[in-house]
Design a protein that fits this description.
Blueprint (H helix, E strand, L loop, with lengths): L3 H6 L6 E4 L2 E5 L11 E3 L4 E4 L1 E7 L6 E9 L3 E3 L4 E5 L2 E5 L6 E6 L6 E7 L2 E6 L4 E5 L6 E6 L7 E4 L2 E8 L2 E7 L6 E6 L9 E3 L4 E5 L6 E5 L4
Parallel strand pairs: 1-18
Antiparallel strand pairs: 2-21, 3-4, 4-5, 5-6, 7-8, 8-9, 9-10, 11-12, 12-13, 13-14, 15-16, 16-17, 17-18, 19-20, 20-21
Length: 225
C-alpha cells in the first residue's frame, strides 16, 4: 500500500498551459517609451511610464489624466489612492490632485517590480528575488513572502486567486499560484517576444498587462477553464 508520505513525494502534475487571448492593445503613448506598472480604478487604466502616470479609458484608449510622478515599477489602487513604487519608496498619491499623501520604504531589494492592493495590504513582486511580498501599507513592514520559480513582474489578485507575470529570455506568462505554497496552478503563455511588466485584473474578464519597452498595454482575456 502506498503511504501518504510517498504520495506527497510524487512530483506534482504540470500546471495547465493556455495561449493568451489578447483582446486589444493600447499605446505606445507619445513621449513615453516604457511601461512599468499598471492598475485599474474601476473606470480608467493607470500606467507608470518612468516619470509620468497616465490614465486612459480602456474602451477607446483615450488619455484622461497625466500626473508627474517618479514611477519606475509597480502601481496599485486601493479604491481611493494610487500607490507607486519610486525606487526606494512607495508613494501614496491622491489621483484627483496628483499630490503625494505619504510614503513608506519599499522592501529592501533592487528588484521591486509589480504592485497590487488586496485584503488591506500591498503586494510587491520582486523580479530577481523571485518572490511576492505582502506589505503593511502604513509602515512598509513585510508580513509574508511567497516564493516563485520564475522572475516575478506584475502582481494581481482575481478574487481569491493570486496571479503574477513572468518575463525571462523573451518568454512571458501570466501565472496563477497558490498563495500559501507558491505552487503554479495555471499558466497563460504570451506570444513569443511579448513581455509582461505590470499586471492588473479589471474585476471582470480582463487582465491589463504592461508591455515593458514596447510602450504598450495589452488586454488579455481571463482564461476559460
Amino acid at each position: 500500500m502506498t503511504s501518504k508520505l510517498q504520495r506527497l513525494e510524487r512530483p506534482l502534475p504540470p500546471a495547465a498551459v493556455m495561449a493568451a487571448d489578447i483582446a486589444c492593445e493600447y499605446g505606445p503613448f507619445t513621449d513615453n517609451e516604457r511601461i512599468h506598472g499598471v492598475t485599474f480604478d474601476g473606470r480608467q487604466v493607470w500606467t507608470a511610464t518612468g516619470d509620468t502616470l497616465i490614465a486612459f479609458d480602456p474602451a477607446n484608449g483615450q488619455i484622461h489624466r497625466m500626473i508627474d510622478a517618479p514611477s519606475d515599477a509597480g502601481t496599485a489602487f486601493d479604491g481611493t489612492h494610487l500607490y507607486q513604487i519610486a525606487e526606494s519608496r512607495i508613494d501614496k498619491i491622491d489621483p484627483s490632485t496628483g499630490k503625494v499623501v505619504s510614503s513608506i520604504p519599499a522592501p529592501d531589494s533592487g528588484s521591486n517590480s509589480g504592485l497590487t492592493w488586496a485584503e488591506g495590504s500591498l503586494w510587491v513582486g520582486q523580479y530577481r528575488d523571485r518572490r511576492i511580498l505582502q506589505v503593511d501599507p502604513a509602515t512598509g513592514h513585510v508580513l509574508r513572502s511567497i516564493a516563485s520559480d520564475r522572475f516575478v513582474t506584475g502582481v494581481t489578485w482575481v478574487n481569491d486567486e493570486l496571479w503574477h507575470g513572468t518575463w525571462e529570455n523573451d518568454e512571458s506568462e501570466l501565472r496563477q499560484v497558490d498563495p500559501a505554497s507558491g505552487e503554479v496552478l495555471m499558466r497563460v503563455a504570451m506570444p513569443q517576444g511579448t513581455g509582461v511588466s505590470g499586471l492588473e485584473h479589471n474585476g471582470a474578464d480582463l487582465f491589463f498587462c504592461g508591455g515593458g519597452a514596447s510602450g504598450k498595454v495589452r488586454a488579455v482575456r481571463y482564461p476559460q477553464r
